[in-house]
């Protein structure tokens, strides 16, 4: 059973920064592609960023390119989402997700992910 524990959410003013962390105790962490999703009230869950098991391949939605960075430390079994220049439209519950993937593969669809964290609230005030 893979458990994902997120942290780092909070309230920040527009233009500010937050770093989300998602940690697991699963020792095969480097075999899992990881993704960050978000869901705002009244909206569907959307992919924000994803990375392959090694972290060598990453992808972002257009609205966060140049502002957000996904990274991972496989020695610490942790994936991060560094969020800079936050905007009110970034307000949402953020979830990390994991699914087994080989090589440089990653997933961008929620149905491809088998394990999910509990979510952490990010609120950006204007």
Descriptive notes:
The protein is mainly beta. 0% of the residues lie in helices and 47% in strands. The chain contains no helices and eleven strands. The chain has strands at residues 5-7, 10-13, 18-23, 32-39, 46-51, 58-60, 68-73, 78-83, 92-100, 115-116, 120-125. The strands form two sheets. Strands 2, 4, 5, 6, 9, 10 and 11 form a seven-stranded mixed beta sheet that branches. Strands 1-3-8-7 form a four-stranded antiparallel beta sheet, with no helix packed on it. β4 (32-39) and β5 (46-51) form a beta hairpin. It starts with a strand and ends with a strand.
What distinguishing features does this structure have?
7-stranded mixed beta sheet, 126 residues, 4-stranded antiparallel beta sheet, globular, mainly beta
Q: How are the SSEs placed, and which strands pair?
A:
Elements: E1 5-7, E2 10-13, E3 18-23, E4 32-39, E5 46-51, E6 58-60, E7 68-73, E8 78-83, E9 92-100, E10 115-116, E11 120-125
Parallel strand pairs: 2-11
Antiparallel strand pairs: 1-3, 3-8, 4-5, 4-9, 5-6, 7-8, 9-10, 9-11
The string of secondary-structure elements, in order, is EEEEEEEEEEE
3D shape: globular
Helical residue percent?
under 10%
| Structural class computed from helices and strand pairing | mainly beta
Distance between the termini: 40 Å
Number of helices: 0
Strand tally: 11
Which stretches of 5+ consecutive residues score pLDDT under 50? none
Describe the largest sheet. Answer: 7 strands, mixed
**Percent strand:** over 45%
Average pLDDT reading? 95
Cα Rg: 13 Å
